[in-house]
Write a sequence for this structure.
């Protein structure tokens, strides 16, 4: 039987591990991000560099994992090499199922290996395997294929791995799991690379004891029916998040050519509707998900000198990739865009950061801030082949310019100029929504500087004429509830299903006695814990800055007012300081 409270501790330097029951944490913090945050605080060395042995990675799953539909995510917590502060990333696929089936609620990884290794984790413990032959391998797809063929556990197995971008410490390198899912943002791949950790393979077959089986079955059926009968979930199945391309473009909110515009004339060609009609090859679902929102397009290319023989490549796409590597770079050629996405996947880069970095580089090049001797390729809007070469150069880092690009757009713009059009929020590159003030405030004050923190773009589309203080309050309220979703751990696409009343029922079936008010209080405590941790690592809200470019391009709300945004930041700073004061008093 699975004990959700078991935590697996791994020391890469000593090549050792042990398991400890941490019911003290799981009983209080549920699981997922709630527990991961506490484990990180216990194990990470304060003020350690992101690439120091003292930077600790924590993976955690939640009480709903393996039990309910759409409870398919894993949370990773670490210090981000991109922002130098708290990092958090989520991924779907089979990772959550594999971790819990192996008998663990969380995995803690610390230290640095003296040589490239990969780990094989099961209910029997950890094997430390030599990864010399995998290190430097060109494609992340090849790494996954080799490990799949070499190791047991198919079915309930996950294979997380990094590409050459992680090995080369590109600050926005990602960790790929099950080929088409990612711990995408904040640079977890680079942290893996700094630890000489090429991959994690996790598998197990443990079962789960259910204390209230009748309540569980009834609640499961309720959640399942809500999921499969939801109109929005049907859209996710049919088109995925790429359904947003045309609607966001129609609003005048689709960042185009480094947000020099907010409408893209080529939106139709890169829309979910057009891709589904012309390029869709198959759909894929995460474990325990009836929706299958992962859409794979096909690239079909003839072999040289072999008539009627074709190589078919599957490429995962969604809204954020179509924005960052499509409209943001002025690319409307579907085949060129898919090949560019494939190149980013092969190298193991975060697609959002890559697109924003290349968009800044293109504008800087066109304005003469950098020369052809720096860029080595003629960067220009719409030239997918040139961008594919630039992606390889970001990974290889042949000169000082590409070394700077590998550090992120914030760093590169400080070296070469053009910070006014460098779309960085707290060190993290901009997501794909120029919907109005709530979106941009959310990017900046969210715990991860991400659109997934509090969905400010949704507030922009639903509510008008809010004061700066009202927007900040709504963002914090939403982010606080998302801490519960991230502790369970459920997919954010299902946030409309997993409302407080449903969460209460789902947990009750597992023996938890938490009412809606206590759940909301717990979410707020986790949110405040994150702020306190960020402060202890040197985060200062009064140092936050908005990119000038967001004030130059009107939204469907009109132009964003600088004084309005300044007032929002001042109000957030007051709340932040109150949280830190409260945290200090509790100590």
């Amino acid at each position: 039987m699975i004990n959700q409270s078991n935590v697996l501790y791994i020391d890469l330097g000593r090549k050792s591990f042990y398991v400890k029951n941490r019911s003290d944490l799981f009983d209080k913090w549920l699981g997922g991000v709630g527990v991961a945050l506490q484990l990180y605080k216990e194990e990470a060395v304060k003020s350690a560099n992101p690439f120091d042995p003292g930077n600790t990675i924590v993976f955690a799953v939640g009480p709903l994992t393996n039990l309910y539909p759409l409870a398919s995510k894993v949370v990773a917590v670490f210090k981000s090499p991109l922002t130098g502060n708290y990092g958090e990333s989520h991924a779907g696929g089979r990772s959550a199922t594999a971790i819990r089936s192996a008998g663990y609620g969380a995995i803690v990884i610390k230290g640095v290996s003296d040589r490239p290794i990969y780990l094989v984790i099961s209910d029997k413990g950890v094997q430390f395997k030599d990864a010399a032959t995998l290190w430097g391998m060109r494609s992340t797809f090849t790494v996954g294929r080799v490990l799949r063929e070499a190791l047991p556990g198919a079915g309930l197995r996950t294979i997380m791995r990094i590409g050459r971008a992680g090995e080369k410490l590109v600050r926005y390198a990602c960790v790929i799991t099950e080929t088409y899912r990612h711990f995408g943002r904040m640079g977890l791949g680079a942290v893996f690379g700094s630890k000489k950790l090429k991959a994690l393979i996790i598998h197990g077959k443990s079962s789960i004891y259910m204390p209230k089986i009748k309540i569980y079955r009834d609640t499961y059926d309720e959640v399942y029916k809500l999921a499969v009968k939801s109109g929005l979930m049907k859209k996710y199945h049919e088109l995925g998040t790429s359904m947003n391309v045309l609607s966001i473009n129609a609003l005048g909110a689709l960042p185009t050519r480094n947000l020099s515009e907010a409408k893209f004339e080529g939106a139709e060609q890169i829309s979910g509707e057009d891709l589904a009609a012309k390029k869709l090859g198959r759909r894929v679902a995460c474990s325990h998900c009836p929706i299958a929102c992962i859409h794979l397009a096909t690239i079909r290319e003839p072999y040289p000198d072999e008539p009627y023989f074709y190589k078919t490549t599957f490429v995962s796409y969604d809204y954020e990739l179509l924005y960052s590597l499509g409209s943001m770079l002025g690319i409307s050629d579907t085949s060129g865009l898919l090949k560019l996405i494939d190149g980013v996947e092969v190298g193991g880069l975060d697609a959002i950061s890559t697109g924003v970095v290349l968009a800044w580089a293109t504008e800087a090049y066109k304005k003469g801030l950098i020369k052809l001797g720096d860029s080595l390729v003629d960067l220009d809007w719409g030239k997918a082949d040139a961008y594919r070469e630039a992606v390889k150069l970001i990974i290889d880092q042949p000169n000082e310019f590409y070394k700077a690009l590998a550090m992120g757009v914030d760093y590169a713009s400080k070296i070469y100029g053009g910070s006014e059009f460098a779309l960085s929020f707290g060190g993290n590159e901009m997501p794909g929504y120029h919907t109005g003030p709530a979106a941009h405030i959310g990017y900046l004050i969210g715990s991860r500087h991400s659109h997934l923190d509090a969905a400010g773009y949704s507030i922009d589309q639903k509510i008008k004429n809010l004061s700066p203080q009202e927007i900040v309050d709504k963002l914090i309220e939403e982010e606080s509830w998302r801490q519960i979703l991230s502790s369970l751990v459920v997919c954010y696409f299902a946030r409309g299903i997993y409302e407080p009343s449903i969460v209460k029922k789902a947990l009750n079936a597992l023996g938890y006695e938490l009412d809606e008010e206590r759940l909301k209080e717990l979410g707020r405590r986790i949110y405040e814990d994150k702020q306190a941790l960020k402060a202890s690592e040197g985060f200062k809200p009064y140092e936050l800055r908005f990119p000038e470019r967001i004030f130059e391009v009107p939204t469907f709300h009109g132009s964003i007012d600088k004084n309005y945004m300044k007032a929002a930041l001042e109000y957030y700073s007051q709340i932040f300081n109150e949280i830190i004061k409260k945290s200090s008093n509790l100590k």
About this structure: The mean pLDDT is 94.
